[in-house]
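Key result, reporting period 2: structure in, sequence out.
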């Protein structure tokens, strides 16, 4: 991404408190290990119980009931994976890479490839001139009005909840993640191959032990729950009422973080399962802050508490916000454009 030097010089300097919150980037090995213990042990226990429930002929509803907390734990594992791509879960880059690969295999996501795209997302979040990498497809009103009938139809179909939060997530994790992108280098491409080979080995091992049918009946509902909830979280992090978007010549980092990223205030139980990722404005301010330090940073920094919380009820309005209106500087619905 190229940056205009004249534009960069006119952007406001970062405040003092921004420099001060760098202290929360310090990793904590004990907290990291405890997160692994309190997440991986319950996850594999639930996975074992799901397998046994099928083998013993219990009602499949019991299996699906167990899949709900297991899906929540898989989201948490993905947050660990996400931290590793920022080299923030452990102090060691090598440890982050090894653990990141493990979490990536469990979440059907190639470590290097996804991390590369995600760093681009951080560099371009809320920038209208650099959309398309690691974000949700968003058109401006003008782009939509000038689009062909086929493009409009494709966009409207994509923006339906069924596609965005069910079909889309499964497509991403099961199919799209099996291939590298054109922007990927050798390291990123190799991560896709390693992840695919590991997944194939797991599937073959499961087929020879518990059977492919049992593997599918346990893994698929967990993945559906985790992928659907995960994409919803990602969606409302940058698609909400009052969100900030700007053209490149007006875009600035602090506004993109504080106004273009939400503070999704969730009940404590859900906040635990989602690894504090709801504090997304802080994450975009300082991506190197590990998930286990985000709440402390929020509690001890008055400036980040000035961001209005996005509640679950208010976040549901995002479902009807489909286009960015540059004139009014707000997200609008399809019906508003017709009117």
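The corresponding designed sequence is given below.
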């Amino acid at each position: 991404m190229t940056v205009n030097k004249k534009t960069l010089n006119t952007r406001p300097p970062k405040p003092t408190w921004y420099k001060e919150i760098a202290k929360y980037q310090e990793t904590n090995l004990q907290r990291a290990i405890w997160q692994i213990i309190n997440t991986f042990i319950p996850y594999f226990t639930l996975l074992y119980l799901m397998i046994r429930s099928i083998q013993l002929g219990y009602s499949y509803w019991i299996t699906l009931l167990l899949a709900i907390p297991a899906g929540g734990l898989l989201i948490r594992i993905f947050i660990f994976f996400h931290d590793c791509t920022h080299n923030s879960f452990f102090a060691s880059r090598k440890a982050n890479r090894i653990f990141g690969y493990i979490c990536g295999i469990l979440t059907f996501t190639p470590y290097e490839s996804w991390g590369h795209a995600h760093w681009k997302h951080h560099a371009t979040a809320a920038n209208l001139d650099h959309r398309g990498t690691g974000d949700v497809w968003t058109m401006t009103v003008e782009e939509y009005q000038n689009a062909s009938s086929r493009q409009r139809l494709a966009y409207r179909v994509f923006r339906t909840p069924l596609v965005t939060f069910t079909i889309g997530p499964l497509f991403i994790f099961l199919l799209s993640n099996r291939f590298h992108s054109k922007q990927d280098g050798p390291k990123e491409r190799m991560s896709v191959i390693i992840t695919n080979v590991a997944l194939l080995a797991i599937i073959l091992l499961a087929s020879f032990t518990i059977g492919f049918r049992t593997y599918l009946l346990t893994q698929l509902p967990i993945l559906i729950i985790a992928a659907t909830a995960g994409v919803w979280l990602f969606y409302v992090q940058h698609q909400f009422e009052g969100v900030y978007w700007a053209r490149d010549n007006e875009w600035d980092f602090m506004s993109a973080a504080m106004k273009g990223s939400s503070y999704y205030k969730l009940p404590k139980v859900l906040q635990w399962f989602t690894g504090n990722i709801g504090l997304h404005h802080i994450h975009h301010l300082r991506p190197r802050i590990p998930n286990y330090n985000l709440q402390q940073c929020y509690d001890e920094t008055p400036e980040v508490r000035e961001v209005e919380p996005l509640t679950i009820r208010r976040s549901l309005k995002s479902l009807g916000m489909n286009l960015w209106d540059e004139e009014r500087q707000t997200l609008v619905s399809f019906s508003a454009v017709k009117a």
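Residues 5-338 form one domain. The first strand starts at residue 139 and ends at 140. This case is discussed further under Risks and Mitigation.
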